[in-house]
Design brief:
- The complex is a heterodimer of chains A (384) and B (351).
- Chain A has twelve helices and eleven strands.
- With 384 residues, chain A is of the alpha/beta class.
- In chain A, a hairpin with a 2-residue loop joins β5 (190-192) and β6.
- Chain B has helices spanning 22-37, 53-56, 62-68, 84-96, 116-119, 136-149, 155-168, 183-187, 216-222, 250-258, 276-286, 309-323, and strands at 4-11, 46-50, 77-80, 102-110, 191-193, 196-197, 206-215, 227-236, 268-270, 293-294, 328-335, 341-348.
- In chain B, the strands form two sheets. A ten-stranded mixed sheet of chain B has the order 3-2-4-7-1-8-12-11-9-10. In chain B, strands 5-6 form a two-stranded antiparallel sheet.
- In chain B, α11 (276-286) links the parallel β9 (268-270) and β10 (293-294).
- The longest helix of chain B is centred in the first third of the chain and has 16 residues, at 22-37.
- Chain B is globular and about 55 Å long.
- The chains are: A alpha/beta (384), B alpha/beta (351).
- Chains A and B meet through β3, α2, β8 and α8 of A and α3, β3, α4, β8 and α10 of B.
Chain lengths: 384, 351
């Protein structure tokens, strides 16, 4: 098996509406930045893997066809992944597999969403009228978590504030809310009890891209690579009696498989920081527990203690996370590339000092799709 | 390279209108493949499927398809919003990493709930093409006209493709539209999208196809007739018709060269001929001569379950090899209008 390294990272500026760019222009903005970071050109790329959420978000079917020219794919393999909200991380993993197979030397992977081109809430509701929105699906499970864990109400507000304060350090973030506060979150309109408006992710336009390569390619890279030391995916049936949607078995098993592959035995101690897919504030403690970073019932205490803040012992969503930028199909890839950026030491004002091991994560559907990867500054890190 | 073989395959008939759900289409195939190989669901290391939300008119339609794969306890799987043949590509690549032994690959689609000629213009560039309503049928007509203008084909050539395909389809139990009709009779029909006649088009179909891949010794243990995938590659052409010579496929030629398809005789070619003129373009791009039997199944002109049509080519080619009717075959899948994206797979029999 070839080892896979991230040698180029590119992001567009995320915002409510990138009216200045076509979809082609949006994906190129991120792709060209990733190539520039890797000091490569489209001509150097062997294959392209793209990902995005449902085609109905922009009304373009199988967009790899119309984006082939913009992504320099003509005459090359290009394929498109779609695994609901987890797609950004699934796409990164798919591209990583192309490298690990030994069949490709340099792969460009790009995810995007141009949500302002359509009506995301309509599309996310399965295209039916009167959609309850994603928050409407998740709120009952969040309520169940609160009841079960006995977490106080302010935990959600705290995550909402923390991630928006982190976003102020990230020039690409969609939301820059310098006056964010617990009071503001608490007083913002209730969208889906217990979720307030400011505890929910925005709807963004944006694209994210990475250049992946093998060991030989990494040796020629102009900047420090991030090594993908493990990845895992798990899916479970979305609806049946006996399923636990608050702590889905697929999420637990995905994390177990991931840590086993990486050689991690104590994730909280051995992982330096994480970019978790937290579209609604409460998912931070829920995934800390659901992905075995802490024991069941301890996630909200970990958040409350400040451990997940920049400067805490397990920083989460240093970039501002999905709560600050959410071009849906790209959001998982952003988690993966932000994790890579941390171990490359290129995260700027939100760099976790000395980050060596980072986790990138996404989930999707009715919390029944999970995709995660672990990146390291070393190709074969050892854990103690 | 890891040796990867197709050890079992299955397909549904091509239905004009399948009355049940897409997961139901897939479920029958999963059960058939498990029964044939004696495998349990938990022995499938990885599953990858191809389907299209827009056909069902419902974003996230593919999520319910995982029910057919028995995703409980949780499974390791993925999904491409493409024909199942592209899922086969990713499955094959995933197996090359060398840490898994089995991979289930599926493609499924139900075109009957929608109106394809209204849906598929949305495959076009959203700024310049889609507003024109430029659909794949019109693009196939333009491609056909390019062949005529370039002197590479005449209308009788299109009719001959249809006549042969629909006649071959008569012995294919999965075919939807078959006929014993001569080119002369076909040429008497009126134009539908000039120079195409209705019979130059595929039927509208529902259906699914599936293959089970296994590695090396595991493949040999699971079947006495493994069909080895000697290589798989796919390439895309420019999206803009004005930037293409629609009578050539330089991308597909790259794939054919890299796969060295002519390193040994090709007995059978299952080609994704959705519109009869496409066969002329594909034959030239692939350099196929009289020594290769093209679409003995009848091909997509006899049944076109979108999202499974390409993977069905692989199934049909594998069936002929497993049965001993062919030794070495190529299977081709296509995506987009006027053969914009093409996948090629080389299959071979032998222990």
């Amino acid at each position: 098996m070839e080892r896979c390294a991230v040698v180029g990272i590119g992001q567009s500026k995320y915002s409510k509406r990138r009216a200045d760019l076509s979809i082609d222009g949006l994906v190129r903005e991120a792709a060209l930045r990733a190539l520039e970071d890797a000091e490569l050109r489209f001509a150097d790329i062997d294959a392209i893997v793209i990902g995005k959420a449902p085609d109905a978000l922009e009304g373009v079917i199988m967009p790899e066809l119309s984006l082939a020219d913009a992504l320099g794919a003509v005459g090359k393999p290009i394929h498109r992944v779609h695994t609901a909200g987890s797609v950004g991380a699934s796409t990164a993993i798919s591209a990583c597999t192309l490298i690990e197979s030994g069949m490709f030397q340099r792969v460009l992977t790009v995810c995007y969403e141009k949500q302002s081109d359509g009506n995301a809430t309509w599309a996310l509701g399965g295209g039916r009228s009167g959609s309850q929105g994603a928050g409407g699906s998740f709120a009952p499970w969040i309520r169940k978590y609160i009841t079960k864990s006995g977490a106080p109400e302010h935990i959600g507000w705290k995550v909402a504030v923390k991630d928006r304060l982190n976003a102020l350090k990230n020039p690409y973030a969609h939301l820059h809310l310098p006056d964010i506060s617990i009071e503001k979150v608490r007083e913002s309109p209730m969208l889906w009890d217990p979720l307030h408006f400011l505890e929910s992710c925005p709807s963004s336009d944006g694209a994210a891209a990475m250049v992946l390569t093998n060991t030989a390619g990494a040796a020629r890279a102009p900047r420090r690579p991030a090594w993908v030391i493990a990845h895992a995916k798990r899916t479970e049936t979305i609806q049946f009696p006996g399923r636990d949607p608050v702590r889905p078995a697929a999420g637990v098993e995905c994390a177990k498989a991931l840590y086993k592959k990486a050689g991690i035995t104590d994730p909280r101690r051995q992982i330096d920081c994480a970019e978790l897919y937290v579209p609604f504030s409460w998912y931070e403690p829920m995934w800390l527990e659901g992905h075995l970073i802490c024991d069941e019932g301890q996630g909200w205490k970990m958040t409350d203690s400040g451990a997940t803040e920049l400067g805490g012992d397990f920083p989460v969503n240093m970039s501002g996370g999905v709560l600050s930028s959410n071009p849906i199909g790209a959001s998982g890839m952003i988690r993966c590339l932000e994790a890579a950026s941390q171990v490359r030491g290129t995260a700027g004002d939100y760099q976790v000092e000395g980050a060596r091991i980072a986790l990138g994560h996404a989930y999707g559907g009715g919390a029944n799709y999970f995709a995660m990867w672990i990146v390291s500054s070393e190709p074969a890190p050892s854990f103690h | 390279m890891e040796d990867i073989a197709i050890v079992a395959f299955a397909q549904t008939p091509s239905y004009r209108r399948y009355p049940d759900s897409e997961p139901a289409l897939l479920m029958g195939l999963v059960n058939a493949i498990l029964a044939e190989t004696g495998l349990e669901r938990r022995e499938i290391d990885f599953t990858i499927a191809g389907s299209c939300d827009y056909l069902s008119g419902m974003p996230f339609a593919f999520i319910s398809n995982v029910d057919a794969f028995g995703a409980w306890p949780p499974v390791y799987e993925s999904h491409v919003e493409m024909d199942g043949a592209f899922a086969l590509f990713e499955g094959f690549v995933r197996m090359q990493v060398g840490d898994i032994d089995t991979c289930l690959v599926a493609g499924s689609g139900k075109s009957s709930p929608g109106r394809p000629r209204e849906i598929f213009p949305l495959q076009g560039d959203p700024y310049y093409h889609a507003p024109l309503g430029l659909d794949p049928v019109s693009m196939a007509g333009i491609q056909a006209q390019c062949l005529l203008t370039a002197g590479k084909a005449c209308e009788r050539d299109f009719a001959e493709v249809v006549s042969r395909s629909r006649r071959d389809g008569q012995s294919n139990p999965y075919a939807q539209v078959t006929a014993d009709v001569s080119p002369d009779e076909l040429l008497k029909e009126p134009y539908f999208a000039s120079p195409l006649r209705k019979h130059d088009l595929p039927p509208i179909s529902d259906g699914a196809a599936m293959v089970l891949l296994a590695r090396g010794e595991r493949a040999r243990a699971l079947t006495r007739t493994p069909v080895w995938i000697r290589g798989i590659d796919h390439r895309i052409e420019s999206h803009h018709p004005g930037l293409r010579d629609l009578t050539t496929l330089p991308g597909l030629e790259i794939a054919a060269k890299r796969l060295a398809i002519h390193a040994a005789p090709i007995d059978t070619a299952e080609l994704c001929v959705r519109y009869s003129p496409e066969e002329i373009v594909l034959r030239e791009a692939l350099g196929l001569d009289q020594g290769t039997r093209i679409n003995p199944s009848g091909g997509p002109l006899c049944g076109h379950p979108v999202m499974a049509t390409g993977l069905t080519r692989v199934v049909e080619a594998a069936r002929r090899i497993a049965r001993g009717d062919a030794r070495r075959a190529i299977a081709h899948a296509a995506s987009g209008a006027a053969l914009q994206q093409n996948l090629l797979c080389v299959l071979e029999g032998g222990a």
